[in-house]
């Protein structure tokens, strides 16, 4: 099951990310550094939440999986203190902490979100993700093999030089992965990102005039498919994805839909 929204709380244990994906504004906001709280400090906050009766925690870190030793100490502390939280986090698929999935599962990590972004190496390279399709498959497989309840995949569509066939391939790739949930979002240009600067250099955006705007790349970049085509491909892709899931994993799919419905009722 996904994290319960009943007695749910978030914690930020670190800030920033050292990677340089072209669309992400986190390195700019955090000066390209990764700053983190000590395991003892994190566990102290968790103890307070435990004493207050919280049952679910989501770590809102930009990249929780960056340091294996810190993760190990946090998980060991959760087990030692006998916290009963279900908790979740997110991170890259090529993280050094993949070998920590067993202890994460043992300490009740029940939701793990990966920045997959695309199902073709061409698009991954264009976005400067510095990860491979094999790394994506391995991370998701390892998470599920070691008992992480829900593996989620973040995807981007409407990227520069991406074709309609590339978008559909991302959906087919998602269907073959052992992901439990997934989200396909339109790529946007954020001020301060390498992608924004590329658009300034190409004369697509005026840095001083357009600083307050949030652009969907498909609305401004001639190398990106038009919005109408991107949305059409997304609709086709979801049909492909859900058809595959219902055929190959019907019981899990219906259980997941039931869980979402139950949690939506809890949040109202």
How would you describe the overall organization of this protein?
This protein has 268 residues and is of the alpha/beta class. The chain has one domain: Aldolase class I (TIM Barrel), CATH 3.20.20. The protein has helices spanning 26-29, 39-51, 68-80, 101-106, 121-126, 133-145, 164-176, 194-201, 217-220, 227-248, 250-267, and strands at residues 8-11, 14-15, 35-36, 56-59, 86-91, 109-117, 150-157, 181-186, 188-189, 215-216. A six-stranded parallel β-sheet has the order 1-4-5-6-7-8. A two-stranded antiparallel sheet has the order 2-3. β5, α4 (101-106) and β6 form a beta-alpha-beta unit. The longest helix has 22 residues, at 227-248.
Q: Strands of the largest sheet, in order across it?
A: 1-4-5-6-7-8
How much of the sequence lies in strands comes to 15-25%
CATH architecture, by name, is Alpha-Beta Barrel
Order of helices and strands: EEHEHEHEHEHHEHEEHEHHH
For the largest beta-sheet, the strand count, sense and barrel status come to:
6 strands, parallel
Structural class based on helices, strands and sheet pairing: alpha/beta
Oligomerization state: single chain
Name of the top-level CATH class? Alpha Beta
Q: End-to-end distance, in Å? A: 19 Å
Helicity, in percent? Answer: 40-55%
The count of domains is 1
Number of strands: 10
Q: Average pLDDT across residues?
A: 91
